[in-house]
Amino acid sequence: MLWAVHCLDAPGSSGSRESARAAHSARLRAPGDVVPLVYGRLMSDDGTAAVGSLLVVAAEDRHRVQSYLADDPFITEGVWAEVRIHPFSASANAPVPLVRD
């Protein structure tokens, strides 16, 4: 199943985001039962600063996604203040399919 994860940064967390970025990125690339398919920064309207993150992950259920996120450096270091998890149904007509074989 696919999950969309929408994360908003805590005010004043840009320093924490920078210091936790390498560990966060390494975790996204590590093998596990949650597979990040697409991820990146949400940017301010002028494009100069990160304001959050967006991930699309494959996982068996919401509990696995929640457990995976609980140990993410952006959570443990206080970067993300708000995290929303939603089931995601990718369109069969999308130009880039997000389907795992």
Number of domains: 1
Distance between the termini: 12 Å
Look up the CATH topology.
Alpha-Beta Plaits
Widest sheet, order of strands: 2-3-1-4
Number of separate helices: 3
Mean pLDDT across residues: 94
Rg: 14 Å
CATH superfamily: Dimeric alpha+beta barrel
Overall structural class, as computed from helix and strand content, comes to alpha+beta
Count all strands and give the number.
4
Contiguous low-pLDDT stretches (5 residues minimum) are none
Class in CATH? Alpha Beta
- Main sheet attributes: strand count, strand direction, barrel closure: 4 strands, antiparallel
Helix content: 25-40%
* Coarse morphology: globular
Topology pattern, helix = H, strand = E: EHEEHHE
Describe the structure.
With 101 residues, the chain is α+β, with helices and mostly antiparallel strands. The chain has a single domain, classed as Dimeric alpha+beta barrel (Alpha-Beta Plaits), CATH 3.30.70. It is 29% helix and 35% strand. It has three helices and four strands, in the order βαββααβ. It has helices at 14-29, 62-70, 73-76; strands at residues 2-9, 35-43, 50-58, 80-88. Strands 2-3-1-4 form a four-stranded antiparallel β-sheet, with helices on one face. β2 (35-43) and β3 form a beta hairpin. The longest helix is centred in the N-terminal third of the chain and has 16 residues, at 14-29. The chain is globular.
